[in-house]
Structure formats: structure tokens, C-alpha cells
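Input:
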Amino acid sequence: MEIKILGWGYENIRRFNTLDLDLLQGGTHLSHVTLVMMRNGTGKTTTISLMRSVLNGTATNWNPEEVRSYKPTKGQASQGKFYIKIKFGTELYHYNLILDYERGRASYETSHVGMSGGLEQGHTLPMQLKGVFTKEFINRFIFDGEQAKKTLSADSKEAELAVTYLYQIEKLDNLISEINSLVQRKQSESDSKGATSSSLSYNRTRMENKRNHYLNLVTRRDKVILQMSQYQTRWVDLENQRTELITSDERLRQDQLNLTSRKALKNNELNSLLQTIGTEVKEPFNIHSLFDARLKSLMNNMQTLKLPKTTAREFFKELSESPECVCGRPIGQEEKVAILKRADNYLGEDDLSVINAIKDSLRNYSTSGELTIALEQMITLKEEIQSIQSALDRLVLHLDEEAIRKAESIAEEQSDIKQKILGLQQERDILDAPYGTPNTSEQNNVAAAEKAWKEAEENLQRATGTYEYTQKANKLIIYINNIRSLALQKLKDSIIIKTNEKVERILTDDRITVDKIDGSLILHDRTAVSEGQTLAIAYSYIGSLFEHSSFEFPFVIDSPAASMDLGVRREVASIIPTLFKQLIIFVTSGEVAGFAEKFYSMDDVLYATIEGKENNEKATCTFGKDYFSAYQCEEEE
Amino acid sequence: MPFRLPKNCREYFRDITGKVDGKLNYWFDGYYLSFLVGLAQTKIDSNAEFESSELVDEYPIDYRKSSDYIAALLISTEAKRIPVDETNADALERLMTTLLDSHSRTRLTAEGENRLNQYAARGISVILEKMPKHTRLDEFYQDYFECFKDGVFIENQE
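Output:
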């Protein structure tokens, strides 16, 4: 089903006052791309927010302040309206979002061709979209450039959430919640199987205590991690202060710079050595003579024993089919069974090639002392680094008295922080250790506490006679989770392939591929890409998300290139029209330079310039490229 | 049976693994360093617990050239552990058929991969016993190779 936005309009909404945007312009042709220019503060964000609300039907939940926030600041409007004209397939729908400023309430009206009675109260969607047009879903095709960048941000789960919501995987999560609710209801309603009420109460209390304790440990773990991070940040801050003390002293600044530069060089050398060690380690014969001896021994045995033998499993299988053995004796049924049984003791022909490859490797390797040398060099380097650090630390001794006092105070606090971090690390290790690790118990270990809680829960279930019921429910939850994981993984794999195809077409100068989706998009062998590349990948991803969908959605983007430099804007402008069937892009004049220019040479683009007015005058919309580009130039002047 | 991380492995190697300079690149690195210790011990942990999700079902690209050595070490160590008479061609060949599979991505049978997992489990428990947890890779390497050099990891001196 194709979904197209044909236009929208405002009545008594903030600075717009009253304005209608008909993207068909009275005709029947809808442009592929619509560029809408608005100054900052005119209402781009307002429009995006209202578009989302009018489609997702959630404005009725707004509180009065939210409703009234759309009221024009001047004038006495008691009511406002935002409307949108949208086509679902061949059906034309018109939605009104009515904002009652006096009562602080929002409501909807819907009309569509074929609906008897014209405009009806409420928000009605076509049957196929019921349950699909949720708030989360709509945010994925009406969005801004910052949201697009989140798909690659390690701090965000945007990329994974987009798949989850677009393909409604979260409905499986809702199902699991429902099942858990049913289990809880069953437990509280159920008659006990012979358990007394005091024993039930005991079991219930025990389970709740264990659960609370587990949750407390989880919270404590999160707090420990947060505290560690805060201390580490403070430590770095103190280090900077210490450095500042030294660099503010002219005499010491050069020494400090030299030592820091040397330390950085040595650290780079150390990292390089660690890589060398990592490479050498992958040849186990270099690690210890034991491994070398075993490999040589195996090689010698294989040589002496002439392994692999030239006779393969297949030879015996064929022999078992012959009437006669190689020695001339007849092969009957008994002999055939015996031969076939013993054939499995021999390697197959394919296996022979594997053995020969192994033999070849064993024959041709030789040990080297590179690993030992690298380890010795590493130790020496570490000593040098320590020595440089000591020299850096001694610089403070050359400061004036007051600076030394400050430096000492900093060092004291740093030492204190180091101890605290150590303590927190130890606590975290114990909290996080796998179940059964020595020195852990349900008192101090999350896994053990969880196990204790689950055991108590099981006891309660047995006492309430809901054990079997709960076990079945748990099994069902496992199946649903497996379905969820499998479905999500298959979707992700497919979307990644499509995304990489697009990225390859778009980013021809650099080989960038998406490896997987794990919260955000994880790139192959890359930790950083340029901002333009980030957006190119993000839009390729978003464009691919919808390819499997039976719906074709319009895309509404607010500031797709945001605060990018010109080269990046041009890159983004050339990409996004190829990804979406209908595009509506909101831009400000300041953000458009370098971006809008790319569209001027494209066909099928509609240009609209919206100007808000002062003093309660109506906002105006002017269509046309000439006005659009002239407006942009005027703004620049 | 793909490669699986023993349950204590990830926690031990957590602070020294990551896609940045100065750390191990893969979780497989920790797995590999663990099974080397297990092989040196010539012992497996047959009751080990592993993570439920597979680590990898083939060698990471950096390890492809090592696959022959790993397979050979596995055969040789198993011959010692079981034990199998390495001078008997039939016995050695039988051992190889149980561990090698030309159609597998790792060239090991499921049993071979499982055995390697068990050597890794043994290895990590020895590492946990003999070495503190490290937050720097250079300190880990220094300690790890000292343990090899001093024979701490080697159960049966050969």
C-alpha cells in the first residue's frame, strides 16, 4: 500500500496562525521531493511534532499545558486546528487535530471518501494500519537528522529499536508481559495444594525478599559502574589540573611537553609491540618448547607410520560391494558387514587432504625467537614509560610553594580516588562473577541472588499449586523469546545486506560495511567515520528498513544535514532522494546552503517557502524555486 | 558444536578485550589463550559450564593460518591424555577420524570442537588460580608468559 501526504494546514497554531499547504497545488501530480523552507523559530519542530501527533492519535493524552502551548501568543483564539491530508492506497483520508485552548483538551476528527456522514469524531485508520501506526512507528518515518545519527551512536539503541518497532517485534514482548500477568493472577487466585496459609505466606515473603535483594544487587551494580565512571572522570580532571599547574610555569612547560611527547611515543611503541606479540602468539610452537615438541613428535610419527595411509574409507566401502576380496577370497554378507564396520576407522578421501595439509604445515614451520624478543622489549619499554612518568611526576617539585601545595592536594585526592576505584572494581567483579565463583554468595553476587530468587519462586509455585502452570508459561516464554531472537536476527541480516548494497553505491571512495546491528549499527573494522558518512549510512539503513514492508511510507525529515559542512550536505542531498518514494524535507535558509543547491538540478521537486508573520498576521506559503532560492539568498545577505 | 566460551572466561578477559589499541581484538583471543593452558596441562574439564550462545563457528580471520597447528596440537595432546599409542598407525588414525572433519569450517568434528572447549575450560580455571585479573594487556602478557616460562602452566613436564 502506498501512503502519501498530500498536504497539511494550520488554524490558530502558534506563529502560523492560518495556513494551508496543498502539495498537489490544485492538480493531481505529487512531487517526489518537497523542500519546505522555514526560518528558525517559525515552526519546523512544531510541524513535525503535530504531524506525528495527528497520525498516531495520541494527542488526546496531552495535558492542558501541552495543548495550550500551541496557542498563538497574540490574539484570543479559543481553538486551534492542525490537519493533514493523506492517501492510503486509493483512499483519501483527512485528519483534524482539534486543540481546545480554553479547556486544554485535544481531540480528533476523521473523514475519508466512502465514509458515510462526512467528518466523524475520533481517530480512525484503515484496517491494515490499525496497531501499526503507533507513536514509535511513526517516529521512524517522521524524524530529524539527530535521530538519524543515533543509529550509529554506541550510546543509543536506535538502530535496533527501529527494527523492533517497524516489524512489531515488541508485540512479542507485550505477549510475554501478558503471560507473566496471567501467571501472577493464577498464583494469587489459586488454592494451595495442602499448604497452610502461614506456609504460603512464608514462601511468598521469602520469594519477595529474595527478588528484592536480587534487584537491589542489580541496582548496586549499576551504581558501582556509574561511580567508577564518575571517579575516572574526576581523576582525568585532576590530571588535567596538575598538567595545567606545570604548563602555566614557563620554565617547566617545555620539559612537560617533551616528556609527554616521549611518553606518547613510547606508548605507541608499546601498542605496536602488543600487536606483534598477538601475532606471534598465534603460532603456538613459539610459546613454549612443549608445543614445539608435541608437533614435531606427531610429525615424526606420521612420517614413520606413513600417515595418512593411501587407503581411504571409500576403498573399503567399494570393496564391501565386490564379490571378492583383493586376496581372492569371496566376500559374503558377514564379511561385508565386518568390512563396512571397520571402514569407519579409516579416514575418508577428503580427510586425507586435511591431514596432508596439516602434515605440510608441520613439516614447514620453524620456531623463532621473535616472541621472546618482543616480550623482553615490552618489559624494557614499560620501564622506560615508568621512568618518564616519574620524571613527569617530579616536575611538580620545581614549582613554587603554592603550586606545590596544590599539586600535593591533587595527588592526595588522586590517590584516594585510585583506592576507591580499586575497591569498586573488586566489588563489581564479585557482583558480576559467574555463579559458583569462589568467595561469592547470594549476598554479594547477582547471579547467585538471581538463582536464590528463582528457587524461592519455584517453592512458592509448588506451594500455590501453580508450579506446572508456571513451568508451562515459562516454556512458552522461552519459545516466544526464541522466535523473537530468530525473527529479529533474520530481519537484521536481511536489512544489513540491503543497507550495505546502498552504502556501496553511495560511498564509492571508502569501503565501509555494516557488520551487525547490536543496539546501534556496528561497522566492520571501523571505530570512526565522518559525519557525512554517518548520515549516508544512517539514511541507507532507514531506507532499507522499509523495503520488506508491504507499505510504502512517505518520509518527513527535519534538517537532514543539520550543522554539516558543505561537502557533507552535498553528499546527503544526493543520497536521500534515491532512498525514499516521497520525501518532505524541512530546512532553514542557514542550513540549506550546499544542500538545496543539489536539488535545483533534479526533476520533480516542489519548493515551498513558509514565512511566519508578526502581529497576528497569517503566515504565508509561496511555491516555486525562484522564490525559494531568492529567499535563501536574501537571508544570507 | 561450535566454539563456546567457558563461563568464567568473558569476565576474566573483559578489561583487556576490545576493538582498541592495546587490547585483545576478539573474545576468541581469550578462548585461545585459555585452551593453550589446557593443552599444556594435558587435562580437560569435562564438567565445565559454557555460555549458551556460540562464540564463533569458524576461526576468526587472524587465526586461519593457525588452524593446522591447533588441530595437530589437539591430536597430539589427546593422544597423551587418553592415552593412545602414537606409534600405532591404526590407533592414531582412529583418533584423527574422531577429531578431524574436512567438511567442517574448523576442520574439526563436533567432538573435536567440544574437546577444545573443554581444554579452554580447564585452561581458564588454571589461569584464575595462578594469575590475578589484569586490566592492562601488557601486564597480562607478562604474567601469562612468565607462567609458561616457569612451568606453572605445565602439568606434566616432558
